[in-house]
Amino acid sequence: METLTFVLSGTVIAATPLLIAALGELAAEKSGVLNLSIEGMMSLGAVAAFIVVKNTGDYWLGVFIGGVAAMLLAALFAVIVLFLLGNQVASGLAVGILGGGMAALIGKPYESATVPPMPSFPIPILSHAPVIGRGLFDHVLLVYMAPAIAVLMWWIFKSTKVGLVLRATGESPETTHAIGYNVLVVRFLSVLFGGFMAGIAGAFISIASATLWSDGLIAGRGWIVVALVVFGAWRAERVALGAYLFGAATIGQLLVQSIGVEVPSQLLTSVPYIATIVAIALLSMDGKRIRLNAPVSLGRVYREAH
Amino acid sequence: MDANASANQALNLGKGDTPLLELVGVTKAFPSIVANNDVSLSVFSGEIHAVLGENGAGKSTLMKLIYGVLAPDSGQIRWQGQDVAIGAPAQARSLGIGMVFQHFSLLESLTVAENISLTMPGETPRGLEERIAEIGGRFGLPIDPRALVHSLSVGQRQRVEIVRCLLQRPRLLIMDEPTSVLPPTGIPALFETIRRLASDGCAILFISHKLEEIRALCQRATVMRGGRVIATVRPAEETNETLARLMIGRDIPTAARRPPRPATTPALQLRNLDYQPADPFGTTLKNIDLTVRPGEIVGIAGVSGNGQRELAAVLSGEATLPRAMRDSLSIAGARCGDWGADKRRRLGLAFVPEERNGRGAVPEMSLTKNSLLTAHRFGMVRRGMIAFAQVRAYAEACIKDMDVRCSGPGAEARSLSGGNLQKFIIGREIGLKPKVLIVSQPTWGVDVGAAATIRRRIIELRDSGTAVLAISDELEELLEIADRIHVIFRGRLSPSLVREEADGALIGGYMTGGFVGGHDARTAVTA
Q1: 3-state secondary structure of B484
Q2: How high is the ipTM of this complex?
């Protein structure tokens, strides 16, 4: 029973930052911008939040500042790719490296420092349920917010004008411009939103789950986020499923290691990544679904006609 | 101006007062060309007004200026007598200007209602469904609001565009070459819709280069050539010949042709081909039998999007068939269904694709280097090195032979106009002395004079014993050059009609599936 509680709890904690950042990246990609600097943005968000919490003890201020810090970096990226017509892949990589470097620099005085974990918010009644109570309903608020945001975004894409405009921009910026929308504004806001979410995800890691800062804290999660959006075929509900699956795989391999099975630990550590690749490959076989949801203009430079 | 005034008078338009829309001395220049030079034009409520001109005459640019997609360099646009600066399409729409684009501005992965809601502030897709049906019923434009756009035929997409405009209750509706995407049988219904709109008081700007249509539909016509207004006339009082002379500045040359003398052994043959394209939105080809013999031109007619693209890909080798289907295709007697494009070309195949820049030619490369791409077997490569003198000579020969207007063989392909580049590509492929020539949309976007040259050369090539397959959306073109015509509809090929029995009505019926029995035909009627 203890084990199951541990697995459930570990899964949602591992999945939450991935889901939050992936939902942000989903919005950016749906509008047609491939943001490969998520890793750097998460690092910057993590260190900013950590510094705020270390100095003020205000966790929500930390989350907010973490989001804003990453959003500023996203604004830089957006200016480069939208207004200076930079290549999205190259610019994304460069801005990501910049973000990682800035995080290391700012965080230098705090290297290996710790903070007390963000206080959890046990949900009344539910948190007293056996096994799942401690496993699912005794966490910080962000853990519950992540799936709620996923549902909200699913609904926005499906049923609102905002979602429709975002999808239209990603499918064909030229057409969207022709029918009278400002493509660059839509994309700019989407990228900012993506940056804000990546910052919050980073903050979650540094002040709620790891509760420490060290360089390299994000450890490739930013890349998993980018993969998750593809894995989810650009649909919020599938992205969420992917995030929790990846979280479960992460915890699963820890569990197997702790039981002491005779498998090299490096192999086990790579399981979540391999699982993600296999899942992406399998899901990509349904071309029609991909075509209906994939933003066709993703990664393409859009030059406005005058 | 006099002609204009008298035409207005004769029509009793606008009770002699202000036009709904008036353009005065509008000029728009692009880096390489003055697209509109001192253009003046007036349109009255309830009028169907044609803008007539060849491709490249500046019609589309003019409409984009009116619709706020582009801004004029100088000149005035007046709406109900007031000077306006239309800075964006949204502003044009709020004035009451609607536009049906030649290339549709529909998003394929969205439904009809979702697409329409994007241009209707404050409306939800669901809330629009009823109104879409209502407008559709009133103007003869039935459409399913919940259908995904990618599943619609081109004609249905046009209906969506028109319904979208009508929902905004436009005072002026611009229609850019609306008949170019319709089968001949769909055109009367469109005209009926346009007439109903005009009698409701809406002004229509009808852009076209098809003279018959303009004479049948429009009360006045503004004729453009080279970016300028040449004349404003009443088309009903003109003949096709006088209109054509205004439009191109001289008489249209016609291609002379002799009866074909085809050989008996097929040069190109498809047997019972079924083909599922990789693109999930593509058209699946079903049970296609096709034979082209040396010395004949076979035409493939049909509304675009019915499998022409896939058929061209399968024949050219851009899409190869699986090994088991090798026998489905033979070129010059060799079974080559699973061979790639280069291997097929070695059998004597030449191919002119639909897109010039990017598939027919590399835009950034010179004409010389573009010649090398398909003619490299003709002594242009020695021991792995390019013999540039030979290549340049070949390019020069193509330029001279086809009267390509360019600065010389060193000109980049992208610097040529569409028509000139097409002439060059056709010249390059003809120069290969192919056994089989496949040409897709030979004169799409090419001006009348160049089109005549291209058609004449294709017929000459046939007379020299080449088997030619021409795929074209323009039925008039196929009726002019082809010896036999097949129609393609939803991936199926009709029986072939020899030139003499191919009349517009029969082919029009085939274009909407008249040759297939059962289910397909029924859905075609309702489509």
Answers
A1: strand
A2: 0.78
